[in-house]
Amino acid sequence: MRTVHTPEDPPASGMYALLTAAVAPRPIAWVSTVSADGHPNLAPYSFFTVACTDPAILAVTSVGRKDTYRNVVDTGEFVVNIGTESLMEVINATSAPVGPEVDEFAAFGLTAEPSDVVAAPRVAEAPIAFECVRHDVIDLGTSAMLLGRVVSVSIVDEVLAPDGLPDFGALLPPSRLGRHQWGYAPRTRDLPRPTR
């Protein structure tokens, strides 16, 4: 037995609730931008993934046209910060619906650190920061996908493994699930891909 829903016959809670409860866990892009008139902004996005590796492009989807969307359209730059479990509460706090004049860095006790290439600051407390320039913005109904070409990546040494890549066990990134649920970093195992 299965329960079936269509866009014309969604669950009572709506398609957004169904999608976010079923497509989980989702990594979190903690996106920092600066507005055209110089106001810093910081907000988490769980509709986030790698879109391309060559060139390196990250995809962040904004549900609605929020401050981040407007800043990326206006300035062409943003930073995807990767947080840790220890930052879960403050990452969530920066999702508060505040006006575009509010500096979330100052409001939530975070450090806006100058980025290496782009004007938007990175979150000093976050161990990884991908600096991006706008590759494209794709309008998708009530959402918009922000595609950013990575122009610089900074990683704190404490989360690097001997091979020079981030160590998942040291990074411990949180994730978003459905409803009000957040996920802690899961158990891992090595499972090489088949060679043919």
Task: Explain what the structure shows.
- By secondary structure, the protein is of the alpha+beta class.
- 16% of the residues lie in helices and 35% in strands.
- The protein is globular and about 55 Å long.
- Strand 11 and strand 12 form a beta hairpin.
- A seven-stranded antiparallel β-sheet has the order 3-2-6-9-10-5-4, covered by helices on one side. Strands 1-11-12 form a three-stranded antiparallel β-sheet, with no helix packed on it. It has a two-stranded antiparallel sheet with strand order 7-8.
- The longest helix is centred in the middle third of the chain and has 9 residues.
Low-confidence stretches: none
* Content of β-strand: 25-35%
**Rg computed from alpha carbons, rounded to a whole number of angstroms:** 17 Å
Give the distance, in angstroms, between the N- and C-terminal Cα atoms: 36 Å
Basic shape? globular
List the total number of helices.
5
User: What composes the largest sheet?
Assistant: 7 strands, antiparallel
Mean pLDDT: 96
Question: Order of strands in the sheet with the most strands?
Answer: 3-2-6-9-10-5-4
What sequence of helices (H) and strands (E) makes up the elements?
HEEEEEHEHHEEEEHEE
